[in-house]
Amino acid sequence: MEAARRRQHPGAAGGPGAQLGASFLQARHGSVSPDEAARTAPFHLDLWFYFTLQNWVLDFGRPIAMLVFPLEWFPLNKPSVGDYFHMAYNVITPFLLLKRLLYCF
Fold this sequence. Notes:
By secondary structure, the protein is mainly α. The chain has helices spanning 2-8, 18-29, 34-38, 45-68, 81-103. It contains five helices and no strands. The chain is elongated. The model has no long low-confidence stretch (mean pLDDT 74). This is CLN6 transmembrane ER protein. Residues 1-20 are annotated as: Disordered. It comes from Aotus nancymaae. It holds the Pfam family CLN6.
């Protein structure tokens, strides 16, 4: 039965023609034309730029900010400036991914 399934849907089992099989199944069973299924997804240069900028500012800027801002501003019972950078990273990233989700359709 496995061999029959492979003959019916080439590449569906993850073999050497897996990409061909995925586009074949999508074109056959989806609402996408065969030309659109064979085309590759576009590269989102804007998202690449946003994530790169965010990584440089919030990850590499964290130790620099910890050296620049006085230690008295951040007592030990409060988050440090590095913690605030880390929190900003965790808050901004889902919104960038949401932008990708909303603008891909």
